[in-house]
Specification:
Length: 334
């Protein structure tokens, strides 16, 4: 394995050259009206849940699931920031830094993002959770994810040309708010095409490393495929991920999983959803799969503020005592 210690300076050098040479870096025409900066707004949301877990030793409770607040907006014509903290974050309800992002808008073909951000891999992962049609990302996608909070620290380049778009990132590989650093960096990226209105197809890749319990660095790679159709009153999306981890030198474990979810909007406030998901933690073994079916609905109060109810039928071959899960959530967004 080779070190990536020279990649960051190289990327930053290229960024500086582009910024200083591109026409969009020129000052505004003196005849145009000057804009007032910074243009910042308070952002965040609160999610309160009632959960009825029918697993062995059934429990029900009210809980604050997430509580986030921060600021976002432009500080100059081409530079934006997004800094958000979580006062309550799953799974242990402790405070965490969520976003610490600086965006530099250079050109529609090249935008630069630095800081701690959602990693560009897959469809559900880099989508902010208030936008997910279900209350929570699918279990399959959460188990196949390698990054805490689906975020990491690094540099991302992105752009769009007609029906094509890309996001590629060089990151630490240790997830959000790391307590240690793996010696090598990870590479992730997602490439999409929108052949017609409302429809998008994406391909993702993740090439990375992780630290084993005995301290050595091992390979970890993922490939993802997704599609999303969201037009008029209908939503249909799906995702499939293949993950390979090196469990010992030269020996690997393969995991696969994905989901398909459909939604139907009724009027301006109601939405019905259904989701099927499958996760296999080791493709070399039989009878070790997780399957889930989620049925639910959303009532949108205003914007992304909504009341949601999901009932999940859950089966896990590795955990026979797992029961169904009923969740009601009130989500209020700023």
């Amino acid at each position: 394995m080779t070190s990536n210690k020279f990649i960051y300076p190289f990327i930053l050098f290229i960024i500086v050259i582009i910024i200083t040479s591109h026409p969009s870096a020129a000052k505004q025409d003196s005849t145009s009206s000057p804009k007032q900066y910074p243009q910042l707004r308070v952002v965040g949301f609160l999610q309160q849940q009632y959960i009825d877990d029918r697993t062995t030793g059934r429990s029900s409770q009210f809980t604050i699931h997430r509580a986030r607040v921060g600021i976002a907006g432009k500080i100059t014509d081409r530079i934006s920031v997004n800094v958000v903290g979580g006062a309550v974050e799953p799974p242990d309800r402790t405070p965490r830094l969520v976003n610490a992002i600086v965006d530099i808008d250079i050109h529609r073909l090249l935008n630069v993002r630095m800081g701690q951000f959602l990693v560009p891999f897959g469809l559900e992962g880099p989508e902010a959770i208030p936008f997910n049609p279900a209350i929570e990302r699918s279990t399959a996608i959460r188990r196949l994810n390698t990054f805490r909070m689906f975020r990491d620290i690094g540099v991302q380049l992105s752009g769009q040309h007609q029906i094509l778009s890309y996001k590629i990132a060089l990151i630490n590989g240790d997830g959000a708010n790391p307590t240690f650093n793996t010696p090598n960096n990870d590479f992730t990226g997602r490439f999409t095409v929108k052949p017609f209105r409302g429809f998008e197809i994406g391909v993702s890749a993740h090439l990375g490393y992780f630290q084993s319990p005995n301290g050595d660095t091992r390979d970890r790679n993922r490939t993802g495929f997704d599609f999303n159709y969201d037009y008029d009153a209908f939503l249909l999306r799906g995702e499939y991920i293949i993950r390979r981890d090196e469990i010992s030198p030269g020996n690997y474990i393969d995991q696969v999983g994905g989901y398909i979810v459909g939604g139907l909007r009724i009027g301006s406030n109601w939405e019905l959803i259904g989701r099927f998901e499958l996760y296999d933690p080791d493709t070399s073994l039989d009878n070790n799969r997780y399957t889930g079916i989620t049925l639910g609905g959303n009532y949108y109060i205003e914007g992304r503020s909504r009341i949601s109810a999901n009932y999940e039928f859950r089966t896990d071959d590795n955990f026979p005592g797992l029961g169904n899960l009923f969740t009601v959530q009130m989500q209020i967004t700023l």
